Amino acid sequence: MLQEVQNNNMSLIFHSTTLLLAISFFYCFPLDPERVKSPSYREGRYHNLDPDEELQGKSPLAILRWKLLGPKDPPAVEGLTEELPIVLERNSKDLVAPEGKVRVVWFGHATVWISSTFKGKTVNVLTDPIFEAPILVNRLVKLPIPKEDLPLVDFVVVSHAHRDHLDRDTLRYLRSKNPNLQILLPSGMKSFSEEENLGSTVSQELGQVSTKESVKITFLPAHHWSRMGFTDTNQYFWGSYSLEAQGKIIYFAGDTGYSSHFKNISERLGKPVDLALLPIGAYKPRWFMKYAHIGPEEALVATKDLNAKSFAPIHWGTFPLGDDLPKEPMLDLKQRLTFPSSPDTKGLYPTSDGISWGSKDGVKIVPWTIGSGIDLE
């Protein structure tokens, strides 16, 4: 039975990849002529801070080779199954931060809700929002709240141009709910946003700042690459973000491999990160994924580079993008942590779902699930 399932999966992978290759050949996105003026653009493409020859973009044929020929990594933990992460259902009131707090709720993958309420004024931020599924990929779990029930979003921050992070339908939907929505994009995406009818957007260079009320958002480095069609590989920039509100710093890493940029960000910020949102999934096989995706082990190193007080893992359990099974990244991370004899639920929201903070080398880490929240105060 298992062999039959594997054969069916391989057949689906082959046909899906072939279809993606065909689609890519016939779909091209506009390129911003102003991109060549970016300090991060040279020699015909955007670049990372560190050498990035391994990040020229994976062709559909390279992906096909990975899927068909391997090799695959061994399981990270014993007893792995196809079990999906639990989804905690939420309503609109659950998402709005109480006065004097910053509330962070994970929606799955790299989509995180961040709400700050200060002196009666609330600012809501959504990272890399995707409400359905990217092309040719199934969504494994639902959102913790129907999109129709979301409070108005003030800021959307997009880390990079990959379809599981930059979803045009989701952005247009959020724009329809709030015409004053501010969409923050990486450098080189002005023509793209105009062509895709995304409304008013901001294309950012490293260090660029956007503000509203008590919230300050800064565009920062990542170690990654970009592509939406066939002819635009690394013609749009990529990055990460810090969000400062009420004296707290939340860092959203987007998608990233490990590099010196984490220490660079710590130097830029000049003070500790209160909560780091770091990706851990789509990390296997390492020979294919390591240049673009950190895994649990590297995420823990990154927390030290960032001088982070706490870390919540994202980018796992939502889309089957790597060889890792849905809960494997989290279970891999969890086995590296130490947990207190009595559960530590301070700041977790809700506190009654059995989740406790763990720790590693003085950093607090929460093995949360989709719909889980953290209150910073």
TrEMBL record:
Keywords: Hydrolase, Membrane, Transmembrane, Transmembrane helix. This is Zn-dependent hydrolase. Residues 124-316 form the Metallo-beta-lactamase domain. The lineage of its organism: Bacteria, Pseudomonadati, Spirochaetota, Spirochaetia, Leptospirales. GO terms for cellular component: cytoplasm. Pfam families: Lactamase_B_2. GO terms for molecular function: hydrolase activity. It comes from Leptospira hartskeerlii. Gene3D superfamilies: Ribonuclease Z/Hydroxyacylglutathione hydrolase-like. It comes from the Bacteria. The chain crosses the membrane at residues 12-29.
